[in-house]
Amino acid sequence: MESFATRLRTAMNARHLRQVDIVRAAQASGVKLGKSHISQYVSGKTTPRADTLRFLADTLQVDEQWLLGHDRGRPDMPAQPKRVPDNPGGRADAPRTPSSQAAAPQTTSPSHELEGTPMRHFNKSTKLDNVLYDVRGPVVDEAARMEQSGMHVLKLNIGNPAPFGFRTPDEVVYDMSRQLSDTEGYSASKGLFSARKAIMQYAQLKNLPNVGIEDIYTGNGVSELINLSLSALLDNGDEVLVPSPDYPLWTACVNLAGGTAVHYVCDEESEWYPDIDDMRSKITDRTVAIVLINPNNPTGALYPKEVLQQIVDLAREHQLMIFSDEIYDRLVMDGLQHVSIASMAPDLFCVTFSGLSKSHMIAGYRIGWMVLSGNKSIAKDYIEGINMLTNMRICSNVPAQSIVQTALGGHQSVNDYIVPGGRLYEQREYIYNALNSIPGVTAVKPKAAFYIFPKLDVKKFNITDDEQFALDLLHDKRILITRGGGFNWHEPDHFRIVYLPRIEVLKDATEKLTDFLSCYRQ
């Protein structure tokens, strides 16, 4: 039996339709279907819910059951779809059967369908309809397929330091090895005392107000804590202001928790700083919080105190919480200093996130933390929710917790990377100049982290679909990047490059990109 993905591709080819054509048809019909959704269907990563399946069958003029890969329906695709009535009185997304069998039980078999009874299918939750994470999405799946066939792919899509020769400090590895036998059991739900004490002292050095050891929570990376903190807060319909572009986990977790991510624009013409007027215009009576990513991923922007003060003033005026993602706060270049927004808002309730994955090049260890600060009296009930979810997950990775004290104290090896002559600094200088020398490409110089977010001249290259651009670059030059839309950017004119590889590798990549763009037209 052919798969849904195979028959979907067959039907699209027969109708001469591209993925973008399906997305546009969906928009015209009021159907929620994005480019990443259709890519996941085409790649076989997932199958659609019943209402989306009906739309696809209608658009492609095929039978729904045939599209699902069943033998029912003509495999040569009928000119007009065969409509199958809904189950009377059933859920809108319930399995659909011929009317003569509407009351038949949904019998399943390990390897085949019983005569006249369709096999029951299990669909993903509707809560995932607006949850996307293209940093590890369809283009990455295609890169994996290419690698499995023996091709080499240069991965510039994920900020993972280890594959590019960045090593964990020796002292950290040594201290973890010495403590392994003491970290075999669970820790307290919030984390080891030694780790939380070190994080508390670090928060105090960053001038976060009203922070005690009970306000520190360790997590399996910041990602787990973002999900946890939003799940504890949001009710259906609550709105959270999230930057565009953003680290897409923020948008995904807001939506997964039942909230609505409302994107405020970061202005490329102003060093990628948040557009405060746009932020203000999007506050409603359902808005509960503002998300700040500083330093920013994917742009590498670092926000000055004047910008942070405007955001604090806005949050104060509308009584909003502030979530501040500061995982790159120790990767700041050009002699600049990172300021935690919580340090400027003692009267507000703030949740600040950081960790060791990037600053200590130990992304695989999965150790991050969040700090509650400011006016905690207005968030007592919310904190109870956080504590409940923290207890439910038992605790975070205990061996990784054991090295927090070592990592935050003593010599900070990352400082050697971010000054002139250091790897990150010199690689940033190279990629910034190289990208801006390519006709049709411009980029704002990042001040922090290890990403750059260049802009493409869409008129010059006739680009209407940034995912297609990423796929074309992957197929032609074996270079994997992440499209701008993967960061909830609204136009198909940007992409992110991770500049962790050494300069000779970046040089080869930018030469290939230059050659690719010299004749590329979408």
From TrEMBL:
PROSITE patterns: HTH_CROC1 (PS50943). Keywords: Aminotransferase, Pyridoxal phosphate, Transferase. The keyword Flavoprotein does not apply. Residues 26-67 form the HTH cro/C1-type domain. GO terms for molecular function: transaminase activity. Its EC number is 2.6.1.2. Transmembrane segments: none annotated. It comes from the Bacteria. Residues 70-118 are annotated as: Disordered. Residues 97-111 have a biased composition (Polar residues). SMART domains: HTH_XRE. InterPro entries: Ala_Aminotransferase, Aminotransferase_I/II_large, Cro/C1-type_HTH, Lambda_DNA-bd_dom_sf, PyrdxlP-dep_Trfase, PyrdxlP-dep_Trfase_major, PyrdxlP-dep_Trfase_small. Its cofactor is pyridoxal 5'-phosphate. Belongs to the class-I pyridoxal-phosphate-dependent aminotransferase family. This is alanine transaminase. It comes from Bifidobacterium bifidum ATCC 29521 = JCM 1255 = DSM 20456.
